[in-house]
Design brief:
Largest sheet: 6 strands, mixed
Number of strands: 10
Structural class: alpha/beta
Oligomer: single chain
Helix content: 25-40%
Number of helices: 9
CATH architecture of the domain at 2-83 and 151-222 and 231-236: 3-Layer(aba) Sandwich
Strand order of the largest sheet: 6-7-8-3-9-10
CATH topology of the domain at 2-83 and 151-222 and 231-236: Rossmann fold
Order of helices and strands: EEEHEEHHEHHHEHEHEEH
Mean pLDDT: 92
Radius of gyration: 18 Å
CATH class of the domain at 2-83 and 151-222 and 231-236: Alpha Beta
């Protein structure tokens, strides 16, 4: 479903991603770990079609992102560091606005459904500027899943969430899992990542340095692999 082949991204003389390849099939959730500056957000932006690679390719469902055009918006749900919601609108108004852009059928019922899923229905008619940081993040997640996309790209979706909201997100990812959907998300929480995902990968120094299924992978093994990946990047810096 998501195929990244030998991806490189440079900003001038600074190379952020170096020859990165990964594959996320339908029915799988992949968590991407890495220290700050590893290139995780850049990779997510390129997969989402928001940035162009210097070299390499990205295909989503067999379609090259560079040729996908506006149709890509309906195919992918994205949660980024910018929540992409309007503070001067209510939570419900935000979802109705984006639902019209996505041409979501039975929009009113769908808005009710996703507000329930993210626990925002009691605050649906409040302006977003009155929301806490965690509530804004919940609304961003609701926006990303509103049109039921087959690909979800979630860049640190657990940022700003308290434990209750994080548990909600975990249940939501389980509910969203299906044979037709691929999910890629990033987080700094190693324990949470291996609990939520089917497979893990570590990006460090712009290179993919570790990849493994989560089945049988202990938190201690994950921390060791992470430390080794970061050390490898530092040795080559």
């Amino acid at each position: 479903m998501i195929t990244v082949e030998r991806l490189t991204k440079a900003f001038g003389r600074t190379v952020v991603l170096r020859d990165v390849s990964l594959h996320v099939p339908a029915g799988e959730t992949l968590v991407l770990f890495g220290p700050n500056g590893a290139g995780k957000t850049t990779l997510v932006r390129i997969i989402a079609g928001l940035s162009r690679p210097t070299a390499g390719s990205v295909t989503l469902g067999g379609v090259d992102v560079r040729r996908a055009g506006e149709g890509l918006r309906r195919y992918v749900g994205v949660v980024s560091h910018n929540p992409l919601v309007y503070e001067s609108l209510t939570g419900e108004e935000n979802l109705r606005f984006f639902g019209r852009l996505y041409e979501v059928p039975n929009l009113a019922a769908r808005v009710d459904e996703v507000l329930d899923q993210v626990g925002l229905r009691p605050r649906r008619r409040d302006l977003v500027r009155t929301y806490s940081r965690g509530m804004v993040q919940r609304l961003a997640i609701a926006r990303a899943i509103l049109h039921d996309p087959p690909i979800l790209l979630l860049d640190e979706p657990d940022t700003g969430l308290d434990q209750q909201a994080a548990d909600m997100l975990r249940r939501l990812l389980v509910d969203l899992g299906s044979d037709r959907r691929a999910v890629l998300f990033t987080t700094h929480n190693l324990d949470r990542g291996i609990e939520w995902a089917d497979r893990v990968a570590i990006l460090s120094g712009g290179r993919l340095r570790f990849e493994a299924p989560t089945a049988g992978l202990s938190p201690a093994q994950m921390r060791e692999a992470y430390a080794e990946a970061v050390a490898a990047a530092n040795r080559k810096a």
